[in-house]
Design goal:
Number of helices of chain A: 10
Oligomer: homodimer
Strand content of chain A: 15-25%
Helix content of chain A: 25-40%
Radius of gyration of chain A: 18 Å
Distance between the termini of chain A: 21 Å
Strand order of the largest sheet of chain A: 1-2-10-15-14-11-12
Number of strands of chain A: 15
Largest interface: A-B, 61 and 61 residues
Chain lengths: ~350, ~350
């Protein structure tokens, strides 16, 4: 049985382990500071496909395959796969994982999807609803730009607060690991929708920061812990603007995050040289970093206890055109390794 | 602990109960044969809002409020809410439930969303990850037409195999019910993505039928039961074309569904008089019927053991334009009342 502690936090008592992980990125991401961490990359932004959307589907399949291979399971042993992406009707996921033949649970959480999917997959394994579950998500700069902003051919200018959608995908395989050597998910906190009225869709970091602060605050309260109790607190993806706001919002709550926090949106690219505005974003950003760099640090013994919180902006081009503000949602998982 | 049986089916041993349910529909749905079953309706297709999208958000909030009221809980007692809809980036859900202040888990399963959300909410309650969970979904004819087909003002013609998106929303509240008088979810089978190559987005029944047959076949195998063991098997929404195909596909497997099956898409409207092509569709169709008519039959003692399977077509206008076929997914829940 899962156990609830405090208002929001769920403790997984059976320690669902991350036994497989896989990551794939595009050329620009490979040229960034984490380039060598990813399992594979492609210089072709279409990944051999005819369209950017099909390329994104291919990203998901490649990441999932790598995670399955690393977990050393057969794909038909996977009981459930949680997946989502940024595309309308989440076609990156449905077409990407169509060939897998595994029960498919579609998610939509914008950039919060990786934590959402990993949390749900972990709970399913913890409670016995699945023996092996997986979570995967993706984003693609070119498919996102043309859907959310403008077709690339327009060459439109970007504001300094705007974030750069990462071309990438990350996948995890979760199961109870008999010998217990892999990292496991111990706690989960799902976040509520938070909307403080930010309406600038080129400043999503500002829109998401309040939801990140809300979920983190709930988690600290529920567990009676603070920033200093964790090796690192990862968010994804607040970028430079949202990160600063998160620090200020958490200061107000009495928590100083500054020495204990990294944002995946600020890790993916060289912020000085790669011209990415306020940093990376997209479901694939935190997903590909979790399924590479973060997992590598666990495997190498650098980490024993981290928080991973994905943050999503639940807007659409239609809601923006209709004058709506931007709701945010953030989900958190606590990953440990003995 | 949940228990797995056979390849795909999950047994919930703690009997998460449906203690609250709420439904809201539009004018045309209220004029249909189930009109009196719904909690409320509006003759204004904008439900007092400025746009169809905001109307859809309002539908979700109204249905959720009614379900919460009927469950006799306070909204801040709800630990998790699962929600999704057909709109790009699921804005019907995120904006509809923004004010609720409840941890929000976004789903995308097209018309399969109600079974997906109810199944996940039930598992969460069963395993103790939530004490009270909720599931809600919606669709709106006008927002769907303009997003998936043409703006209504074009007055475009419809093919006879096309389905009519239901304006409606249904919500359920799930919790362990101490006195045990309400219906409960006992089994869940999540479906895989099935794609037999149908490319006609005006014939989604045909695209979804193979996935419905796949999930149902798995469930029957896993549980060693057949159609005759259930009061009714509900699907939503195959319409007239998809229903016929489901019968034929299940015949091939040795199961005769004809006397044990109803499709929500064929129940919502008067198929002779209301000019809805092959029947109703949309996440809100099966959701509003589950949260009204089906729940009423349970409460009145007519039903003791049913299957409810929502079927989704995982296409987008972009995937259709890119020549892709239409993947389907179907999730099933077994609802019982002692």
């Amino acid at each position: 049985m899962a156990k609830r502690v405090g208002n929001r936090t769920i403790i997984l008592q059976n320690h669902p382990h991350i036994t497989g992980y896989g990551s794939v990125v595009g050329k620009k991401e490979h040229e960034g500071p984490l380039g060598k961490e990813f399992d594979s990359f492609s210089v072709d932004s279409r990944f051999g496909e005819k369209t950017f959307e099909k390329a994104e589907s291919r990203l998901q399949m490649l990441a999932a395959q790598k995670a399955i291979e690393r977990a050393d399971v057969r794909k038909n042993e996977i009981d459930l796969i949680f997946a989502g992406d940024l595309l309308n009707q989440c076609i990156g996921s449905s077409f990407g994982l169509r060939e897998l033949g595994v029960p498919f649970l579609g998610l939509y959480g914008a950039c919060s999807t990786m934590a959402l999917g990993t949390a749900l997959a972990s709970i399913m394994v913890d409670c016995g609803a699945a023996k092996i579950a997986a979570a995967v998500t993706s984003s693609h700069f070119c498919s996102a730009e043309r859907q959310y902003r403008f077709p690339l051919e327009y060459g439109s200018q970007r504001t300094p607060t705007s974030q750069w959608t990462v071309t990438g995908s990350g996948a995890l395989v979760i199961q109870i690991d008999e010998n217990g050597s892999s990292p496991y998910i111990e706690k989960v906190t799902f976040g509520e929708i938070t909307d403080l009225g930010v309406t600038d869709s080129n400043n999503m970091g500002a829109a998401m920061a309040p939801s990140a602060a809300s979920t983190l605050k709930h988690f600290f309260h529920d567990t009676s812990t603070g920033p200093e109790d964790y090796d690192v607190i990862y968010t994804g993806d607040l970028g430079s603007v949202g990160t600063q706001l998160l620090y200020e919002l958490m200061d107000d709550e009495g928590y100083n995050l500054r020495c204990h926090h990294s944002d995946c949106g600020l890790m993916m690219f060289d912020m000085k040289k790669q011209n990415v505005g306020a940093g990376g974003s997209g479901c694939g950003c935190s997903a590909s970093i979790l399924a590479s760099f973060i997992m590598h640090r666990f495997m190498e013994g650098d980490f024993h206890n981290i928080l991973f919180m994905s943050t999503g902006a639940l807007l659409s081009p239609t809601s923006t055109q209709q004058g709506e503000s931007i709701p945010g949602v953030s989900h958190l998982i606590n990953i440990k390794k003995d």
